[in-house]
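__Protein archive entry__

___
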Amino acid sequence: MVAETILNALGLPDSELAVTVVGDRSIRTLNRDYLGKDHPTNVISFAMNEGECSGLNPDVLGDVVISAATAEREALEAEIPFFHRLSFLLLHGILHLAGYDHERSGQEEAARMEDKEAELFALLVEGGCLEELRG
């Protein structure tokens, strides 16, 4: 429901993506092997619209890998529900797959991504998407 809501809001309702939730050891390996950073991180996205095979299937956006352990630590530190943090990280990863960037571009693009994150996270909250797994 969360990913579907995000994709619909981005105008990508027919898009596909894979979401994998892993531990810190696995995401550290991915971060080291693909991004050259030898430490765990909270989320990594692998876009299918980049590289040699880009364009094979434009409806396939790519993969989002989230570390549950890091998400849990961040949720505890921020005193927010784990599912809210997990959903925000999914949102962040999907925005990367949709072409948003905050690392390789300037401050203007980073601000554009932050604004879109805030807009879509508010949509998730208002739409009740973040309440579905809470008891």
The CA atoms of residues 49 and 58 lie 7 Å apart. The longest helix spans residues 107-126. The mean pLDDT is 91. The chain has five helices and three strands.
